[in-house]
Amino acid sequence: MASSQPMNSSMQPTDVYGGDEVSAIVLDPGYSSVRAGFAGEDTPKSYVNSSYGVRDGSIVFGDNSIHNPLANFEIRNPMSKDGIVEDWDVAPQLWEYAITSRLTSFKQSDPRTNGLNDPKDMDVNMEGVEEGEKPLEEHPLLMTETAWSTTKSREKSIEVAMESWGCPAFWLSRNSVLAAFGAGKATALVIDVGASTTSVIAVHDGLILKKSVQKSPFAGNWLSSQVRVLFNTVEPKVDLVPHFKIASKTPVDAGAPAQATYRKYPITPTPSFVALEEERVLTEFKESVVQVWVGPGRLNSGAGPGTSNLDYARSQQGRVFEMPDGSNQMWGAERFKVAEGLWDEKAAFLIPGETPITKAQTLPEMVKASIQGVDMDLRAALLQNIVVTGGSTLLNGFTDRLNNELTNMYPGARIKLQAAGLTQERRFGSWIGGSILGSLGTFHQMWVSKKEYEEFGPSILEKRCK
Questions:
Q1: How many CA atoms lie within 13 A of 223 on its CB side?
Q2: How much of the chain is in helix, strand and coil states, percent to nearest 5?
Q3: Which residues of 367-405 are buried (b: 16+ CB within 10 A; e: fewer)?
Q4: Are 419 and 399 in contact (CB under 8 A)?
Q5: In this predicted structure, what is the pLDDT of residue 133?
């Protein structure tokens, strides 16, 4: 009986561009990696290192290709430290690799050159061939950008999507807004500590409050530099030998010199390649050893008469870390010192040749400045909805310390932090927000369609994607 009844308005098809929500692709490019996947899924299927290799003019992408020590093999990154694209020649190729290597099939080859057709049958009109080769013709694309992205960069991204990839529809969204959506909030204070940038941004009803935007370059890569300084200043000094130089190793006691056989290479790997490989070891060290001093108080402050928090940290059990060459040692209070500079500028190690962190660039001060940049009426709501995202926030003790710092800064206020417990959710916060947004039925009317792009050009983004 139900089938004979007329369709009501909610069931009737609409003329608005919708595409098929299943096939929308979410692309979240960053300084350390590019995340890509289908909207509606839990995590991105494709996760590609943003660094790429260049050798004799040819470019390679992906972890399988960039970790080979070859002659004249340079490692570069198309993104600037700010998270904005610097090299528009390479970035679209990297993103296309991230999408086509895992999500969609490779481009169709040209029927004239793929060897499958007889040359004498080829006098048919081939004008449509170029059109048939675009990789995303069936996939709307939702892409993320930073809150401080430039108009030029935004317009360039829709150009790439529409003209190079043939997307039927496109949308550009701020990654802090998506991180808030991923945590189920439309109004939130988003604290994002990534690889190259730390940012604190207030989001209200899905829109960024411009005056609240705070950012600093002291994030995951800066912590790696702090670890380097630590390795150079401890006794005995720790040699940072990357994995690719080790052929075999013999277990040794803690503190004893390494007994390893080193690989011999006919060529000298480039400094950029060695830096990439060293970064892998530093990342392992950050993940397994580095810890944030939770509190109360700062690491260098007193815990009571005659004692300091540092003394208490020394009394706690240390953590052992084995370097790729087999040398290992116990890390005690030193492991707390690495990340302390994010909270207390006086505790940061000085990195040769780099400007030291200032008080205004520490996390508590950035939160304070961000909160002061918004209307009085919103402040309480923001403090109750703090979303913590970004891979570097996964440091042991990070959220506890943040909570303690904010409680001290706003003694009477109710402070509520939302930090996903799952590693994946914290690292891919803005991608997951994009995945949720792109799969919503109500979002279908939002897409910027190819027709609109052809009519108004790239400037349509400034009007539509606020």
A1: 34
A2: 35, 20, 45
A3: bbebbebbeeebbeebbbbbbbbbbbbbbbbbbebbbbb
A4: yes
A5: 66
Please tell me the distance from the alpha carbon of residue 165 to that of residue 427, in angstroms, as a whole number: 27
**What's the chain's average pLDDT?**
88
What is the rounded CA–CA span in Å between residue 172 and residue 145?
7
CA 242 – CA 260 distance, rounded (Å): 12
Integer Cα distance of 73 and 434 in angstroms = 35
**Structure-block tokens of residue 67:** 């970790």
- Measured between alpha carbons, how far is 397 from 295 in angstroms, rounded to an integer? 10
What is the per-residue pLDDT across 189-201, written as a single tens digit (0 to 9) for each? 999 999 999 999 9
Strands in 162-257 per DSSP E: 169-174, 188-193, 198-204, 207-208, 214-216, 246-250
pLDDT band at 21 (very low <50, low <70, confident <90, very high): very low
In one-letter notation, the amino acid at residue 382 is L
Over residues 304-351, the pLDDT tens digits come to 666 788 888 888 889 999 999 999 999 999 999 999 999 999 999 999
Q: What pLDDT score does 236 carry?
A: 83
Question: How big is the chain, counted in residues?
Answer: 466
d(CA 185, CA 282): 34
165-187 mean pLDDT: 96
**Residue in the block written with tokens 């799969």:** 439
